[in-house]
Design brief:
With 178 residues, this protein is an all-alpha fold. It is built from 8 helices and no strands. It has helices at 7-28, 36-45, 50-75, 81-98, 103-118, 122-126, 128-153, 156-177. Helix 3 crosses helix 5.
């Protein structure tokens, strides 16, 4: 069976629009770190089917929630810079091992890893509560937008309509050129 040659264009446009919408929502809501919304949206939309995307969205939210709890617990201890470096090394190895096996469990470790990598300031160690709450809502919003984007991404009617419109445009363009 020959693959529809317009699928890549359609999927790229849908993916781009949904990620742009996710960033726009993050900016409009004046989130502290609006880039977490499109990051989450992209991670969720990388599923291979609508069902897989919805599963990834749920797993990402649940894994992030548990990961934030674990991060909060870790930050309650007196963590040294060396401890953080060793943790990053171990977390990266764990994520690489788990990402293809169980996304929900991997998301827990991804959450801890990204917080340790992206939030190196000392205020994280002093008051982690605000970061945990804002990060969870960023991920929740991005995952919801990604799940909706996944529905568009694998909707056959959209692909059919797009294919039809591209063909009409090509015909009109050829007539105009002649």
């Amino acid at each position: 069976m020959r693959k529809n040659r317009y699928v890549n264009i359609t999927e790229s446009v849908i993916f781009s629009v949904m990620v742009a919408i996710a960033l726009l929502v993050g900016i409009i809501l004046e989130l502290e770190n609006p880039y977490w919304v499109p990051t989450s949206c992209m991670a969720v939309m990388q599923g291979v089917s609508t069902k897989h995307i919805w599963t990834r969205a749920m797993q990402r939210v649940l894994g992030t929630f548990i990961g934030l709890g674990l991060t909060w617990l870790i930050l309650q201890f007196d963590v040294t810079i060396l401890g953080i470096c060793i943790s990053i090394l171990l977390l990266q190895t764990t994520v690489e091992f788990l990402i293809v096996r169980n996304y929900a469990i991997a998301a827990m470790f991804i959450t801890i890893l990204t917080i340790l990598l992206a939030e190196p300031n000392i205020s994280l160690l002093e008051t982690p509560d605000n970061l945990m709450i804002t990060r969870f809502f960023d991920i929740l919003i991005g995952s919801a937008i990604g799940a909706i984007g996944g529905w568009f991404l694998y909707n056959e009617k959209i692909h059919y309509f797009t294919k039809k419109q591209v063909r009409k445009t090509k015909v009109a363009f050829r007539k105009y050129k002649s």
